[in-house]
Amino acid sequence: MSRFIQIVEVGPRDGLQNEATALPVEEKVALIRRLEAVGARRIEAVSFVNPNRVPQMAGAEEIMAALAPSLDHSRIGLVLNMRGWERCVAAGCDEANVVVCASDGFAVRNQGSTVAQQIDVLAAIVERQAVEGGPPITLTVSVAFGDPFDGEVTEDQVTAIVREAHALGVPEIALGDTIGVADPWTVRRRIEAVRGAAPNARLRMHFHDTRNTGLANAYASVEAGIDVLDASVGGLGGCPFAPAATGNIGTEDLVYMLQRAGFETGYDLDGLIAIGQAISGRLGKAPASSLARAGGFPS
Ligand code: ZN
C-alpha cells in the first residue's frame, strides 16, 4: 500500500477570494462539482465573511443550498467570528475552518481583532458547538511563517496559539503560510514544534507560492510526516488583505509531484489540469500552475 496524502482543495475559497472577477453563485457551484468529480473529497467551498467586505465570497448560503449533501464529500466553511459560525451551522457545512492569525499586525488589519481576541472567539465557538452541536471545527493559524506588517513570526507565537487550540480539543490544526515566506527547513522545524505543542491533533499545511518555495515546503512537510495539505486548482489564490500575496500551490502541481513519486491522492490529474485551465481562462488569466502549461508525464 502506498501512502495516501489528502489534499484539501481551497480554490473555491482562497482562490476565488483574491480574484478581481467575482463569479456568480452558479459558476462557483459548478466549479465545486467539477472539483469533486475529479477527486476532491474535502473542499473549502465557502467563506462566511461579510460580502460587503469581500464581494467575491458572496452567496455562501446559496452555494451550500445548491450542493446536495454527500457522505463522500466534506464542504468546509471559513469562519472568522461568531456570526460566521452561526451562518456556517445554518448553511449546513460539513466542517468549519476557524482562522486565528499568528501575529497582531495581520490580525487587526485582516480580521479587525487581536490574536488574543481571536483565540477567545475560537474558544467561544468550541463551547457553543459542545452545547448546541454543529460541524467539526478545524483551526488554521494564518501568517504562521511571517506577517506582512509585523515581519517575522516566531515559533513561540505559533506554538502558543496551537497549545490553546489543543487544550480546547480542536482535532485538526493547520499552519498557513499566507504570504508565501516559508522555506522548507523552517517548515520542518515548525512542524516538530507544533507536534510538541499539540500531540493529539492532526496537522495540515497551507502554502502560498508567492516566492516559489511552495512545492519545496510541501515536500518538506510530507517528509516530516504530514499527510494533509491544502492546494488550489490552477494555483488560484492569495488574500485581498495581504499585499502582493499570490496563489496557493496548484493542486495539479502537487498531485503530479506526489503521484509521480508513488503517493496516492485520489485525484484524476488530467481532469484537474482541465479545470485549472478553464477557471483561469474564465478569470482572464494564464494558469499559475506549471501542470496547466506543461501537462503530465507520461502523457
Ligand atoms: Zn491562504
CATH fold-level name: TIM Barrel
Strand count: 8
CATH class: Alpha Beta
Helix and strand pattern: EHHEHEHEHHEHEHEHEHHH
Could you list the spans in which at least 5 consecutive residues all have pLDDT below 50?
Answer: none
Could you say which overall geometry the principal axes of the C-alpha atoms support? Answer: globular
Provide the list of bound ligands, each named once: zinc ion
- How many DSSP H or I helices? 12
Major beta sheet summary: 8 strands, parallel
Mean pLDDT: 95
- Which superfamily, in CATH terms, is the homologous superfamily? Aldolase class I
How many individual domains?
Answer: 1
The CATH architecture is Alpha-Beta Barrel
Bin the strand percentage: 15-25%
N- and C-termini, Cα separation: 24 Å
Question: What level of helicity do the residues show?
Answer: 40-55%
Could you give the topology of this structure?
Elements: E1 6-9, H1 11-17, H2 25-37, E2 42-47, H3 60-66, E3 74-79, H4 82-91, E4 95-101, H5 104-111, H6 115-132, E5 137-142, H7 155-167, E6 172-177, H8 184-197, E7 202-207, H9 214-223, E8 228-231, H10 251-260, H11 269-282, H12 290-294
Parallel strand pairs: 1-8, 2-3, 3-4, 4-5, 5-6, 6-7, 7-8
Helix pairs in contact: 2-3, 3-4, 7-8, 8-9, 10-11
Bound molecules: zinc ion.
Zinc ion binds at residues 14, 176, 178, 206, 208, 239, 248.
